[in-house]
Every structure is written in C-alpha cells, then in structure tokens.
Amino acid sequence: MGRAPCCDKASVKRGPWSPEEDELLRSYVRTHGAVSNWIALPHKAGVNRCGKSCRLRWLNYLRPDIKHGGYTEQEDLVICSLYNSIGSRWSIIASKLPGRTDNDVKNYWNTKLKKKAMAMHNQHHYHHHHGPGRATPIATPPPAPSSYMQPSPASASSAVTTASGDAYSSFGATTAYSPSNQAQTQAHLAHYNNVNAAASAPLAEFPTPAVASSWAINMAFDDMFLPELVGAGEFPSGEDLFGGFGTLLQDSRAPSTLQELSACYFPNAQAEMWADVKPPPPPPGAGLCPSLT
DNA sequence: AAGAACTCCAACCGCGGGGAA
DNA sequence: GTTCCCCGCGGTTGGAGTTCT
Q1: Sequence spans of domains, chain A
Q2: Can you give the distance from the CA of residue A120 to the C1' of nucleotide C16 in angstroms?
Q3: Which stretches make up the Myb-like domain (predicted)?
Q4: Separation in Å: C21 C1' and A226 CA
Q5: pLDDT at residue A44 is higher than 60
Q6: Nucleotide at minimal C1' distance from the A68 CA
Q7: Distance, CA of A53 to C1' of C6, in Å
Q8: Which nucleotides of B are covered by protein (CB under 7 A)?
Q9: What is the pLDDT of residue A124?
Q10: pLDDT reported for residue A208
C-alpha cells in the first residue's frame, strides 16, 4: 500500500515555472511571510502547482538571498571537506555556504567538483606511481604557515602536523599525528620555516584565500579520502574528513571538530558558518590549533 | 551545417522523521 | 501507543544549452 500523493498530479501544472507563477509565489511569500503550510499555499496563492513544487521553487530559486554559480575555491574546499566528512548530507553542507542551496551544491558536486577531485586524484596517482621525474608536473605547494603545522599536545592529526609533501594531504591524510612522528614533524616545520625565511614574504598566520586556494588545488586529492575514491560505501565511524582524525575525535580529550579544523583552514570564514558544529568543551590547554588562538 | 554527444541544472519523486491529533 | 499529515531530504530525471565530430 503506497503513500497517498500529496496532490492530484493530473490537475496541477508541472515542469518549468513561468515568470507569472514565480511572481505569484513571490508576492504571496512577501505578503504573508514564512510559509507554515506549503500544501495549502498553492490554493491561497493562486498557483496551480503542487505544494512541494512551490516549496522547492521558493527554496531553490526565488529566495532573495540565493546565489547561483560562481563558486569560489574556498567554497569548493568546504564542499569537498564536508562531503568527505559527512557524505552526501547536502542540506548540512549547504547550510555552511551562505546563499547556497542543497540542490545547488548537490548539482555542483555531481557535475563539476567531483570530476575536478577525480582528475586531481588521477594526477596524484600518476605522480605517485611514476615518480616526479615522469609525472605530469604537480605544482609545488605554497609554503605552509608554521602555525598550521604545530601539533597540539592533546590532539592533532596529519591534517595539521606534517609538513612534508604528504603533509599536503591536509584534508585527510590517513596517518594521525603521534608523538613518535613529532620529531619528524618538527623537522618539517623547521624546513618550512627556513624556506619561508628565505622567501621575501613573511609567513602569514594563515594563507590568504588565494594562497589557500592554490594550496588546496595542489594538495593530494588522494588524501581527501573521497569515498568513491576508496570504494567505501559508508564512512566508518572512525574515519572522517581528516582521515584517522576520527579516532581522535572519539577521544574525549580531543576537542577538535570540523568546526575547529575548518576554522584553521578558513580563518576568514564567517563564524556563523560553523555555528552549529559544536565542539565538545576543550580542556584547558588543549586544542587542535593552539598556536592559532 | 547538422546531428551526436555531452554538460548542466531545475524539477520531480519517494521516503523517513517528527509533530499533532 | 498509533495513525495521519506535512516537511525536508537525497537520489534521479528530463530537457535546454553547448560542444564536438
């Protein structure tokens, strides 16, 4: 026994919306404010459409704050990282991108971003298997700011620790930070600091969006841990955006969450972007990016 | 120039969750 | 506790537009 249809599909119009229909819906919402009953709306607004269709049209197209197209590299990163972290929870991902809708983000991912990620994944694999001498050149990542790389005593991951080439697996290297690789990490840090000391530009506390973007472009997408790249149907509970970091998240001492991690990568993002990703209260002195605070 | 192939995205569909009765 | 109804979500589709051959 199936579910009763929400409306009489035979008697309502379907397909693309006309400007007149858009205006009817827009003016109704403008007059009456937030819609409490979408099923009743078509009759009240004089639109011969299914209520669900009206809701979708409003949410995805007519809302005044909607942005279409023109995704920035920062938004790409947010989408990739959140997709990696939580999967195809488009409404949640879209909620972190002001002006974007779940449908828009989903379409963007399916039509463009996924291909971009796959292309970079393939490029990385070629580079990995054939060596740098034969590989399609992958641009050298820009220097990572030392503050990125400072491991936290209480919690850290390769996402913010290692500074080697693999360290550019910043969105999901699979090896978590551990005390045993701290020395190596510090060596990498020193290397990066030296490199940057030699450079004219001093290390910024965070990369500018442009630097962050190019950095993201150059990072190993292999390490982004995209589920389709690793053949994972579901995300194991211990795996998340930052690879083995998930296990750290399960550690009650570890205060870090996507919010905090994201804040490391997108320091200029609006605070409310991450507002509903609540970290557990950090113990004193603990934190993923203590040097950044 | 024309048809095929591909890309993009608005819209549809069915399902699950949650609140009200 | 159960049923009903609506909302919101994620997956999928259809078709317009664009690029390729």
Answers
A1: 19-62, 69-293
A2: 30
A3: 9-62, 63-113
A4: 34
A5: yes
A6: B9
A7: 14
A8: 7-15
A9: 62
A10: 35
